[in-house]
Design goal:
The structure holds 2 protein chains of 2 kinds. By secondary structure, chain A is α+β, with helices and mostly antiparallel strands. Chain A is 53% helix and 16% strand. In chain A, a hairpin with a 2-residue loop joins strand 2 and strand 3. The model of chain A has no long low-confidence stretch (mean pLDDT 95). By secondary structure, chain B is an alpha/beta fold. Chain B has a single domain, classed as HUPs (Rossmann fold), CATH 3.40.50. Chain B contains 7 helices and 11 strands. In chain B, helix 2 crosses helix 5 and helix 3 crosses helix 4. The chains are: A alpha+beta, B alpha/beta.
């Protein structure tokens, strides 16, 4: 038997702990902090205490010695009740801490990684700019030049997750540092010349912190270069491949949340003298939601498995991300339909998911970019 | 400082529990087994004693071999070692039989403090902590909603209907805690991973020197002869507000009649 997607006892136990935390702590508070558009610092800190932000990193740097699948399980379970906190975790680990862990120098890791792993601080990754996020090479206007022993950074970034929370410690930004040369540079929060705009008014992910950043002569020491000068392009491509699997897990959480909520509601809600779930028009919709949850979950677990086996996984990561995010949009639409008028309020989880789903088809590589990557990988 | 936390495997509190008609015990197949939620408060208190006083904490479970994941679950909160008493002869023990096994297991250990949950969510007898204290001839401080250890002294706030009493005793002592005592934390992933490599000793009745005649269903003082499903909830009284202002008076009368006020 070589085919196995079984979780280890410890993974299953951990999944249940995170699910319990999500149901007990996150779910009851989610309506309110989303309505207020408030980043729930207290809950994020609690997630930190449980070790969620350190899962895939080594104990040497304060991590949990876990694997990438375990991280995805946590993202799925948090995302099942609230997508804002799901993306906060995904971005905190995948975009904030992972590039530092993977490409950072020993000194950089010692300085910033342990507190990121413990969830005491959050890191952000600044890639997307006003002119675009898919065409990074063509759209990046941010420049950094050397002045003595410092970088001087000028430019701006858009839609940067976790960049303006009271927990934010570092923002890694990509900038052109020469002709065709892209470098990632670590900018500590609070560095003079870095301006963090107020949060965007987004369609969904209301409690996730998303900011526009402006760099006006921002000076940081040259030793803040992430890894090597000129490695920026390769670094973010690798970062995004991993991120796609995690976004897929987040989308699966949304779909599973729709299954759970709709199953409960279809039993409770009566119309024409019987539970609405007695109607096949409703029951079949929920059956389809379950199919979507299970198939999308297999996609991300397969991509995860390939990554953990050391096999190429770029194509599978794109497939998982593309499939699960498009299924999530459909699931949120159908779940909202099942809830009727209640589904169009943000008091309900499915109503919030209707708002939250769309970004899954856009963030960390649009559906179009995923199709481009998959077709290119096929030789087209 | 050494602390022992006895824990119990119970059927999931939220699940629908069934009685097995053959042996009239809980049907373990019908519902998932979990660590008794009340134990989590005792564990949290023990973890705090670890943090404050460097206490060494051992978790103790009396139950079949299949209950071992519950010991590991308790260890995942950061406790140091496990001790499981497993013996076919224990099956069907009542509260006193269970207390005899726990008391004998404790006798073989060094400890300053034993932290029980005040009751289990399946049997809810609340008898075991006091029975263990009695068997060991140790101070019994039950229903603790607050606990402090200072040197050789333990002080607890013992909860009762009208408030609480401040009770103090020398160590070693037996304490049972109520849910008001703290807010248990969640185990971390690191704790879960570490739990599988923590030492876990398994002992039998013979190891502890417990006579099989004193425990198990044969020694139980109480025997269950019959059981029945809980009757379905009856419809309550509905007071309708007809606008005349009498509804409030009706509600007040009803509450007075039921002695709620």
């Amino acid at each position: 038997m070589s085919l196995s997607f079984a979780l280890s006892d410890e993974q299953e136990q951990f999944r249940k702990v995170v699910a319990d935390f999500a149901d007990t702590v996150v779910a009851p508070a989610a309506t309110e902090f989303n309505a207020e558009g408030r980043f729930p610092t207290d809950i994020v800190r609690q997630m930190g205490e449980m070790g969620l932000f350190g899962i895939p990193f080594t104990a040497e740097y304060g991590g949990m010695d876990g694997d990438y699948l375990t991280l995805c399980l946590a993202i799925e379970e948090i995302g099942r009740v609230d997508q804002s906190l799901g993306i906060t975790l995904e971005a905190g680990v995948g975009l904030g801490a992972a590039p530092l862990d993977e490409f950072g120098t020993e000194a950089q890791k010692q300085r910033w990684l342990p507190e990121l792993c413990r969830g005491e601080t959050l890191g952000a990754f600044g890639l997307t700019e006003t002119d675009g996020g898919s065409d990074v090479y063509g759209a990046t206007r941010t420049r950094a030049r050397v002045d003595g022993d410092e970088w001087v950074i000028d430019g701006g970034k858009q839609f940067i997750t976790n960049a303006g929370t009271e927990m934010t410690s570092i923002i890694t930004v990509t900038a052109f540092t020469g002709e065709g040369e892209m470098t990632s540079i670590i900018v500590p929060a609070g560095t003079p010349g870095l301006t963090i705009a107020p949060p965007y008014r987004k369609v969904g992910w209301h409690a996730s912190d998303t900011r526009e950043l402006t760099f006006d002569g921002v000076r940081v020491p040259l030793d803040h270069t992430l890894g090597e000068r000129g490695a920026g392009f390769r670094q973010f491509l690798k970062t995004l491949d991993d991120g796609r699997i995690a976004i897929s897990a987040l989308a699966v959480g949304l779909i599973q949340g729709c299954v759970d909520e709709c199953t409960r509601y279809a039993r409770e809600r009566h119309a024409f003298g019987k539970p609405i779930g007695d109607n096949q028009a409703i029951a079949f919709k929920i059956a389809d939601l379950e199919v979507a949850a299970q198939t999308a979950r297999q996609m991300y677990r397969y991509a995860c498995w390939r990554k953990m086996q050391g096999l190429p996984y770029k194509r599978e990561a794109s497939i998982a991300k593309l499939y699960s995010s498009e299924q999530a949009v459909t699931a949120a639409r159908e779940a909202t339909q099942i809830f009727g008028g209640m589904g169009f309020t943000t008091e309900t989880r499915v109503g919030r998911f209707y708002q939250d789903a769309k970004i899954l088809e856009i963030g960390e590589g649009t559906s179009e970019v995923q199709r481009m990557l998959i077709s290119r990988d096929l030789g087209l | 400082m050494k602390v022992l936390v006895p824990v119990k495997r119970v059927p999931d509190t939220a699940g629908e529990k069934k009685i097995d008609p053959n042996d009239r015990t809980v049907d373990r197949e019908s519902v998932e087994s979990v660590l008794c939620p009340v134990n989590e408060f005792a564990i949290e208190e023990a973890v705090r004693l670890k943090e404050q006083h460097g206490a060494e904490v051992t978790v103790l479970l009396v139950g079949p071999e299949s209950a071992q994941p519950i010991v590991r679950k308790a260890l995942s909160y950061g406790l140091d070692a496990g001790l499981q008493v497993t013996d076919d002869g224990i099956a069907g023990s009542d509260a006193l039989g269970t207390a005899r096994v726990i008391a004998k297991a404790l006798e073989a250990e060094e400890f300053d403090l034993v932290l029980f949950g005040n009751q289990s969510t399946d049997a809810r007898t609340c008898l075991v902590p006091a029975a263990v204290a009695e068997l060991l001839d140790l101070p019994s401080l039950t229903y603790a909603r607050h606990l402090e250890v200072d040197g050789d002294t333990v002080t607890v706030h013992r909860e009762h209907e009208e408030g609480w009493d401040v009770v103090q005793s020398s160590l070693p002592a037996i304490v049972s805690v109520v849910e008001a005592i703290n807010e248990p934390r969640y185990p971390s992933f690191k704790g879960i991973m570490a739990a599988k490599s923590k030492p876990l000793a398994v002992k039998s009745l013979a190891d502890l020197g417990v006579s099989p005649e004193d425990v198990g269903s044969g020694a139980a003082a109480a025997t269950m002869y019959e059981f029945a499903d809980r009757p379905p909830k009856e419809a309550g009284t509905i007071v309708e507000d007809d606008g005349s202002g009498t509804a409030a008076a009706q509600l007040a009368d009803w509450m007075a009649e039921k002695k709620f006020v």
